[in-house]
Amino acid sequence: MERRQFLQKAAIGTVAAVTAGGIVNAPAVHAQKKIKWKMVTTWPPKLPYLQDAAELLAKKVELMSGGLFKIKVFAGGELVPPLQTFDAVSKGTTVQAGSGVSYYQAGKAPAAQWFAAVPFGLNGAGMSAWYEFGGGLKLWEEMYAPFDVIPRPGGCTGPQMAGWFNKKIESVDDFKGLKMRIPGLGGKVMAKLGATVVLCPASEIFTNLERGVIDATEWIGPLHDKLMGFYKVAKYYYYPGWHEPGPFVEFVFNKTAYESLPLEYQAILDAACTQVNNWTTQGFNTGNGQALDELITQHKVTLMKLPDPVLADLKSHAKDAVFDIAAKDPMAKKVNESFERFKKIVGPWGEVSEKPYYNSLADKYKLKG
Amino acid sequence: MERRQFLQKAAIGTVAAVTAGGIVNAPAVHAQKKIKWKMVTTWPPKLPYLQDAAELLAKKVELMSGGLFKIKVFAGGELVPPLQTFDAVSKGTTVQAGSGVSYYQAGKAPAAQWFAAVPFGLNGAGMSAWYEFGGGLKLWEEMYAPFDVIPRPGGCTGPQMAGWFNKKIESVDDFKGLKMRIPGLGGKVMAKLGATVVLCPASEIFTNLERGVIDATEWIGPLHDKLMGFYKVAKYYYYPGWHEPGPFVEFVFNKTAYESLPLEYQAILDAACTQVNNWTTQGFNTGNGQALDELITQHKVTLMKLPDPVLADLKSHAKDAVFDIAAKDPMAKKVNESFERFKKIVGPWGEVSEKPYYNSLADKYKLKG
Q1: Complex-level ipTM
Q2: Do A32-156+247-297+329-363 and A158-246+300-322 have matching folds?
Q3: CA-to-CA separations, A290 to A293, B135, B160, B164, in angstroms, rounded
Q4: Which residues of A touch B305 (CB under 8 A)?
Q5: Would the keyword Metal-binding be found if you checked this record's keyword annotation (chains A, B) (predicted)?
Q6: Which B residues, 34 through 93, put their C-beta within 8 Å of a C-beta on chain A?
Q7: What is the pLDDT of residues B7-24, one digit of tens each?
């Protein structure tokens, strides 16, 4: 406050020379803090549109602050183990920022699931609108406040793929006995349908699939799935990703550290998050499009759509799984109510706007798979 | 450059006290320029998510710059007539920034159409990805450079509606002799189908429709159409908006003024544009959803879908209209090639990702119209 009053007085006392371009040349003495933060992530180094997104965030913040606010970024495992990212940020002793996915925190806060992905929930556009205009971001902040953490949407992968399989899925009976790597609520639904849900680190999925330790896996989408090489060891690539129709990653900041920033830097950090959110979302859209084509034309992947009756069964079970969690946790209940309310606002509009776009306005390309 | 070197030296000479939170408390003396800009828009005062978006941009920039970079915003007609916004920014003598739509510049740069909306072109998600990863923004900058203008995407209205009609559209023959207010390429297509295309300012559309000067009109989408009161004088509200599947508004800056900003302020201005772009896009998605429900339930509007054969005919004519423009102007040709190339990247991915989402994942709400 005192600094601001000083600045105002200084500004009043300045004799300004206004040019035609509207620039007042007299420099104001703007005493700004130098800040150095550390950011850790859950991502492997160089992971496209995820690890490099964290690095882009740091670059944007440094640029906007004229080099005064610097964030040093560490990939998963470089400073803390990947899945301890949130805890490190929550603690805030050496680390002030992180990048990951909110459903990693489902164990300590069941409501966390809703801010990343809900099976048959909102897609990316719906999630974005819910955060901003449906109270989603406020609820997300409320949920993380006890952990001394502030969240920001980090970008959307777009609808994911249903996964890689070595046998055709013709009814939900085909899931019985299937050993599949699928985390989160999607895994709960698959378990109810008789699948054996296997969880393993990203680095082990390929080998497990190759050796038959698992029969099937989901991962992200064409771009990242191609990098994992799953097409070498699985026959069928199924869509749509019913379990994650528009998952968002997150940036998290230590709340005490965030709130002790000058207001300018809080605003700069928020703006950089939105820039990176957009960059990541568009990067996934473009990269998935390019990789899908490569998978089909170069790697001869067989693209398959889950039959409608299978999707209907999955939807019914997903509804139960979501209901179960919301029934047990007051915060999850509150978040789910907000989420469902918002679906009723954007849902019918989607039927009138984007649905006909995808069905009759968008150019139809004959899928090669 | 000199200022930066000075800052670096100053930083090196500072004895810093690092706290646990990572904050270096010793203030750096950061001599920043005070900037005052004027921004004019093509929008009426208080127009939701458009005029207030320009005001939000100014607020964000001021906040991030610690009050040093101020933009005073004027609605259409307050400082210059609405459709002279671009020219005022291009001139740059009293005005440095503007907000409008690029197709208003189609008369002086035919390629401008592509950066706003192309009939049966990309939707909002596709446009965003094209700007960032398909070279779209670079081409947009190249197109405006001769006018000394720099563009930034300002936000997407979502797919528009086809418009308000007083008779049912059962085939393209129903367009013959129809007097319709529809600008741009959409109007060219309608004219080819025998409609009489009428152009009139926004303020006169309602009265013209009421008095039968026009038989039909398109405008934006449920939110803004509701505010215009068209439901009082037209029977049928048709979708989808084939002519504008994901139109973007634009921010424009005088290039000389932009480039004379300190790099921090250029970065801050860019980041604020992205924030407002997102805010506007999500605001339209939410506001259109709410207004659609009001129109149907409170104002008893009859919602109608253009029959598929009508859409197919419109698509064929739209292709010709787009081809005609691209054939006559080298820049339009170059932009169209980039646009079409990008459609082939995101198109097939949309078929696999968002199309099944809208068709089977989104909850089906029985449309009340």
Answers
A1: 0.91
A2: yes
A3: 5, 15, 28, 39
A4: 356
A5: yes
A6: 34-38, 60, 63-68, 92-93
A7: 333 333 233 333 334 444
Which DSSP symbol is given to A113?
Answer: G
Nearest CA in chain A to B33: A27
Q: Which of B225, B228, B246, B229 is nearest to B163 (CA)?
A: B225
Closest CA relative to residue B250, chosen from B149, B175, B359: B149
CATH 3.40.190.10 fits B163-245+299-344, yes or no: yes
Amino acid identity of residue B214, one-letter, is I
CATH class, range B33-158+247-285 = alpha beta
> Closest chain B residue to A122 measured between Cα atoms?
B362
pLDDT digits (tens, 9 = 90+) for B165-215: 999 999 999 999 999 999 888 998 999 999 999 988 788 999 999 999 999
Least confidently predicted of B8-12, B282-286, B338-342: B8-12
Per-residue model confidence as pLDDT tens digits over B99-150: 999 999 999 999 999 999 999 999 999 999 999 999 999 999 999 999 999 9
Ranges under pLDDT 50 in chain A:
1-29, 368-369
What crossing angle do the helices spanning B136-144 and B124-133 adopt, rounded to 10°? 80
The CA distance from B362 to A342, in Å, is 12
Architecture, CATH, for domain A32-156+247-297+329-363: 3-Layer(aba) Sandwich (3.40)
Among residues A166, A170, A168, which one has the least CA distance to residue A212? A166
Quote the minimal CA–CA distance from B176 to chain A in Å. 23
Question: Is B219 known to sit in a ligand binding site?
Answer: yes
Q: Mark which residues 139-178 of A lie under 8 Å from B by CB.
A: 158-159, 161
Chain A residues lying within 8 Å of B24, measured CB to CB: 33-36
Q: Does A33 touch chain B (CB under 8 A)?
A: yes
A289: CB partners within 8 A, 6+ apart: A222, B345, B346, B347, B348, B349
| CATH class of the A158-246+300-322 domain in this structure | alpha beta
Three-point CA angle B294, B299, B303, nearest 5°: 80
Question: For testing the chain B interface, which of A56, A68, A354 should be mutated: the one with the most B CBs within 10 Å?
Answer: A354
> Predicted confidence band at B45 (pLDDT cuts at 50, 70, 90)?
very high
- What's the token pair of residue B353? 């990702």
- Name chain A contacts of B363, Cβ cutoff 8 Å: 120, 343, 347
Distances (CA, A) of B321 to A158, A321, A334, A362: 32, 51, 51, 17
Q: Is the pLDDT of residue B79 over 50?
A: yes
Measured between beta carbons, the chain B residues lying within 8 angstroms of A277 are 278
B302 touching chain A per CB within 8 A: no
pLDDT: which is higher, B197 or B4: B197
- A31 vs B34: CB contact, 8 Å cut-off? no
Contact yes or no for A35 and B23 at CB 8 A: yes
What are the sequence ranges of the domains in chain A?
Answer: 32-156+247-297+329-363, 158-246+300-322
pLDDT on residue B251? 98
pLDDT in the model for residue A367: 54
